[in-house]
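In the previous chapter we treated chains in isolation. Here, by contrast, the input contains two separate entities that must be folded as one system, with a combined length of 514 residues.
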Amino acid sequence: MIQLFHVSKNFGPSIALNTIDIKIAKGEFVFVTGPSGAGKTTLLRLIFGAEKPATGHILINAINLNRISRSKLDLLRRKIGFVFQDFKLLPKKTVFENVAIALEVTGLRPKVVKKKTHQTLRLVGLAEKEKAYPLSLSGGEQQRVAIARAIVKDPLILLADEPTGNLDPDLTREIMTLFKNIHQRGTTVVIATHSRQLLEGTDCRTIVLNQGNISGDTR
Amino acid sequence: MGLRFYFLRQALLNMKRNVTVHILSLGTIVASLLILGAFLLLFGNLSNWLRQWGTALSMSVYLKDGTSAYKRDKIDSFIRGLPGAQIRRFISKEDAMNELKAALREEAGFLERLTHNPLPASYEVVFEASRTEEIDPEKIKQQLEALDGVEEVQHNRQWLKRLEGVLDVVSLIGYIIGGLLCLCVVFIVTNTIKLTIYSRRDEIEILKLVGATDWFIKLPFLLEGMIQGILGGGLAILALFLGYLAFSAKKIYLIGPAPLEFVFLPVGYVAIVFFLSTVLGIIGSFIAIGRFFDV
């Protein structure tokens, strides 16, 4: 599903990723961990096509991101859900509109958009808040809106960058249960986190990054 | 179907969110197009008047002072023998002076100081409109001037050529001003759309991140420019029509006693103004999306 071959990325003189190789199979649940600045966010952004590697190749579902056209990348992104660390919600749009936007861009009929958005909001436990605006929600609720937007289009891959970064332990468990449910539906899930609590006792594959290098992989 | 409505809804939402900018921009577009429309209206009517005046042929035959009644009868008969000619009236020297005094009103006092009446007696001759094509006014002028007792003959087509020359210059100036106003409209629309794009930059980023194609993002902005053009064109035509109604209520006595008919722009011209404003709106927004945001 996701393959990285000798991928490097640097921002000026600073090396974010240093010639790494990773293979993630379809339906896997993977944690990417490491200290701040280890390259976790960069790795997710490379997989998402938001950054281009300095060297190496990235294949998503057998499509080489180095050779993909702009329009095909847009289409590929419809198959990838991304939960951003800062949520990236639109404050002037309602919860419903924030989630529906991911379906509207695919050109689905409004009826279908409405139905799927309702279903997803129910799944993340926000059915009652669909008319609310993001700024009136708690941190955990905002996070769930961001997750709903990422999964509403039934993505093949779900990428999440520090999804429990600002949440208390109860909310963290709640969000993780949500990711597990999504994973059980067949979605490949990759979560970048530096939270020890999240990794304790997990039997999921964990890739450890340190200063742009892979220092551990439980595969 | 749904997607088309989505684009339209987005475009209208963009306008609603930046309503002040759009109203200001619309006002400037309407003003620009109104100037352009007013010019077309004026130019169209001037051309019409000139055409009407050109198809009608009239002559003034001025007589020498002291022309005898016998000579006048001969001139009279000659004129009546011309194809399609009718003597509208004979203006004696006294009548000419009285008309001049009436025209000058309060300023007519200086005419009292004249020791003799310098104005000539004249015939006002008109030709049937159906026969003006077969008449050579220059030839008739020469024939009349050859008659004993005729001082000078003037016909309206002498003036027509001069006025046509003036109209050519006016139309050239009109084209230049029109071109500049069109550029102005494009510039205004471009900047308005740029501001809208800027105000929606966060949304654009998210749209890209969830897989929107470039055109999915650009199309509402293009529609926005088009709507501005349509509204601008429509309002400018409406304002021009209201102005026309107010202006056309007064009869225009430009030349002679017959009032000239002041008509509104023909449907074709209205369609051109409307189409032009729409196209200018699209061009303006096209430049904005091409230059301002590279999604």
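The longest strand of chain A covers residues 14-24. Chain A touches chain B at residues 48, 50, 70-71, 74-78, 80, 82, 84, 88, 90, 92-93, 101-102, 104-111, 149, 153 (CB under 8 Å). Compare these points with the single-chain example from earlier in the chapter.
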